[in-house]
Amino acid sequence: MNKNFFKGYDEAVSYILEIPRFSAKNDTNITKEFLSLIGEPKEAVVIHVAGTNGKGSVCAFLNSIYIKKGEKTGLFTSPHLTDIRERIRVDNEMISKEEFLEAAEYIMEKITLMQEKYNEYHPSFFEFLFFMAVRYFTVKKTEVIIYETGLGGRLDATNSIMRKSVSVITEIGFDHMEYLGNDIASIAGEKAGIIMRNVPVVFWDGNEISSSVIKETAKKLGCKAYGVNEKNAADISVHKKNIDFSYKNRYDKSVMFRVRTYALYQVYNAVLALKTLQVLHGEDYIFTDDVKEGIADMKWPGRMDEIAEGIITDGGHNEDGIEAFVASVRQDGCIGKRRLIFSAVNDKQIKKICEILVKSDAFDNIALCELTSGRAMSIKELKKIFEDTLTENNSRIRLTVYEHVGEAFEGEKALLEKNDILYIAGSLYLVGEIREYTGAE
Fold it and tell me: Contact 195/50 with Cβ under 8 angstroms?
């Protein structure tokens, strides 16, 4: 490399974080052209995951399984909670600061070459990190690569990859509607855009409309489509810290699995991962102990994640995510009071989310606070929406308002009594700020 673009790691991170100020998403063909300039890993198994809810968890389950199987894995996910390096992992270890800097320098060098043809070209924030991940996985010679889409699928930067072994589409619901459309069919169409000709697709078959779109897209592209739903999980037994279940299929009806959480939605995310494994390795694939251990040992921060005794964070941030969050809360066995810290960004359907939380009657107290993110919904607006919803539903839930996340955490934590549980949900940004404030690992 002839030129150093950054003085060090911190300067590289600062530059990347500033990208949204001067660069936007590029045309898909331009993104593909830049990716061809970098070069993709040629031998790896490539798993591409899209969806509205659960895609990060499905990626994490697959990553955990392949690590247990002794395969060298590359994992690209978003967003990060506290450290930008969380997005790029090999064998579940974050890219080091030195390697992050090397990858950033490499991408900058390629940008200068690209600008000889397209004078003002520059990758967007997400594209830059995605390109860094591709480069890093190539250098590390990973054997299995798992890419999580950022937004949508069809126009997502990750969809510029030319090789896929399988596409996976998780539950589809209402989110990012300003970009993806106002109905399930439109959103499903965008997610189904990751389906590649003659490459099998595994999908969550929980909605007739989205399933129809996915199956029709697969048919047009000559792909086999494999749907899974709640019926694929049997013998579900919920415990305080884990859930046992069996994966129902033609070959392994009696094989039991365990997820180390009481979040029921993780059972279904695990089922998607297991089906993906079968599609990649054959329907008669036997789920050996390393697969069971991979499912049981999966850790994905911010998904019904207990960061301290009786304090649980969850990344539910849209209607379906909050519905799933509430369903899990109901199974927590709490014999004390449940308290909730909630905050959100501006692009969410807060009114509907608020109604779900209030009508669930699962919480004794809801505490509101404002995020530091520039996209944060103001505390004034949040308060008004919750007050109106509480009045409309004649709810007895107590509402508390704090100015900052740290203030909310300390205030609610101080009120916890024996057998109480404090939940924190509404935004992954909130989960990240709480984890950073508390130093949670």
Answer: no
